[in-house]
Design goal:
This protein is α+β, with helices and mostly antiparallel strands. The chain has one domain (about 5-100). The chain has helices spanning about 40-50, 55-70, 80-100; strands at about 5-10, 15-20. It has a two-stranded antiparallel ribbon with strand order 1-2. A hairpin with a 5-residue loop joins strand 1 and strand 2 (about 15-20). Helix 1 crosses helix 2. The longest helix is centred in the C-terminal third of the chain and has 24 residues, at about 80-100. The chain is elongated, with a radius of gyration of 18 Å. The protein starts with a strand and ends with a helix.
Length: about 100
């Protein structure tokens, strides 16, 4: 197993660096500290990836892999924000098509 960086809050709100084995070795974020990503984007990604697993560490690692894939230093991590926009757009399209089908069009 390869190490990954995990950050947690300790007394006084100071981030503590710890090491843990990677859940999915060899991903895009392998060896990349979680501090590289916007905390909110990583939390949003972890929440979304929990749709596919009940393992928080795996969900966070998958989220970090997706964020790393499109990360550009100095710009916001938008992967999950854009993913949610796309899913809302597709849900609206699906509902429109279902209404049309029920109306016999």
């Amino acid at each position: 197993m390869h190490p990954i960086f995990l950050f947690g809050l300790v007394a006084g709100g100071v981030a503590a660096l710890t090491w843990a084995p990677e859940v999915l070795p060899g991903g895009r974020s392998s060896g990349v500290p979680r501090s590289r990503f916007d905390r909110r984007a990583l939390a949003q990604g972890r929440r979304i990836e929990m749709e596919h697993t009940d393992d928080r560490a795996m969900a966070e690692e998958i989220a970090a892999d997706h964020l790393e894939e499109f990360h550009v230093e100095g710009y916001p991590d938008e992967y999950y924000e854009e993913l949610e926009k796309m899913e809302r757009r597709l849900a609206r399209r699906k509902e429109k098509r279902l209404r049309a089908r029920r109306a016999g069009r």
